Amino acid sequence: MKKYLLILFVSIGCNFSNIDYSKINIISSLVQTEKVERDIDDPAIWYNKTNPSESLIIGTQKDENGALVVYGLDGKIDKNKTIYNLSRPNNVDVIYNVNFGDDTIDIVVTTERFKNNLRIFSLPDMRELDGGGLRVFENEKNPEPMGVALWKDDEGNVHAIIGKKTGKSGEYINQYKLNFDEDKFRLIYQRSFGEFSGKNEIEAIAVDKKKNIVYYSDEGFGVRAYYANPLLGNQEILTFANNFVGDQEGISVVYKDGKNFVIVSDQQEVNQFRIFSPEDDYNEIGNFYVNCIDSDGSEFHPGPFPEPFQDGLFVAMSDDLSFHYYSWAQIKSEFQ
């Protein structure tokens, strides 16, 4: 959820924290993508294992006549791969080695909010694999799907975990198994789950694919965690990141240097990202500030990529209609 309250609050003298902003080290992005014409929201990274320099960043242009915009590591838009004429695509995620008949492929998915669909495309060629869209929340008239994250179970089945614009606490999120049948994927409903505070909305969803845990931002309340495996039940495991100034927004799961981190955007707090350690009971262990604006979404991949991202790539959405690329070396210097 984008809000434009910070300037107003500062102008009337409100003080939300004890931070001396004059002493903040703001990390400057190493690459800024070409700008698009309208609202953008969420990034995903596809890593090309055979040729990392050909890896892709895929972002949503969240508009009624929107797009799934594909960028190179240089920040340039690949117009041949970009998918146009999507009806307000919201969030996006990537997963590798998905069962596809007798073969496996990598896929990217996005929620098409104004058509209540999940869209699926192959990577890296961006070929449509959903027959024009797969309806989600079928028992609801206009759920407007927003957040999405992918998870693979022990049998190799891929699941899509999808949130919506508004929902009932305990049933805010649906989980579907993706099943390839003849020429396209189909969705098999698994469960509804997810507590909701009712304060704002739930948008950002991420999965820790090693711990098999779903995280989502209950904006204005905190980040909630659940088991990704439906067989383990629908009970909430824990909540964390409860003391934000702005909304809890984009979530990135990081495995790097033998450690596990969860990075969450404190959206209105001067472009701050806050870092939590699952290995330390999800306590906050650091933070960093960046030059992107009011970030809704982010993503991390450890790489290695070509310089200057050989140590890992962090991509953050910015309200200036672009995505900003940062190296992991820049980020870790702020909290280690």
Describe, in plain words, how this protein is organized in 3D.
- The chain is globular and about 55 Å long.
- The protein has helices at residues 6-11, 328-332; strands spanning 26-27, 31-32, 40-46, 56-61, 66-71, 83-86, 89-100, 103-112, 117-123, 134-135, 145-152, 158-164, 173-181, 184-193, 202-208, 213-218, 222-227, 238-240, 248-256, 259-266, 272-277, 283-290, 298-301, 313-318, 322-327.
- Helices cover 3% and strands 48% of the residues.
- Strands 1-22-21-20-19 form a five-stranded mixed beta sheet, with no helix packed on it. Strands 2-25-24-23 form a four-stranded antiparallel beta sheet.
- The two termini are 31 Å apart.
- Strand 21 and strand 22 form a beta hairpin.
- The longest helix has 6 residues, at 6-11.
- It is mainly beta and 336 residues long.
- The protein has two helices and 25 strands.
- The protein has a single domain, classed as Neuraminidase.
Number of domains: 1
Strand content: over 45%
| Helix percentage | under 10%
Mean pLDDT: 91
Output the CATH topology.
Answer: Neuraminidase
- The helix tally amounts to 2
Q: What is the CA-CA span between the terminal residues?
A: 31 Å
Spatial ordering of strands, largest sheet: 1-22-21-20-19
User: Judging from the principal axes of the Cα atoms, what is the shape?
Assistant: globular
- What class would the helix/strand composition place it in? mainly beta
CATH class: Mainly Beta
Task: Tell me which CATH architecture applies here.
Answer: 6 Propeller
Order of helices and strands: HEEEEEEEEEEEEEEEEEEEEEEEEEH
Largest sheet geometry = 5 strands, mixed
Question: Count of DSSP E strands?
Answer: 25
CATH superfamily: TolB, C-terminal domain
Low-confidence residue ranges? 1-17
Rg, please? 19 Å
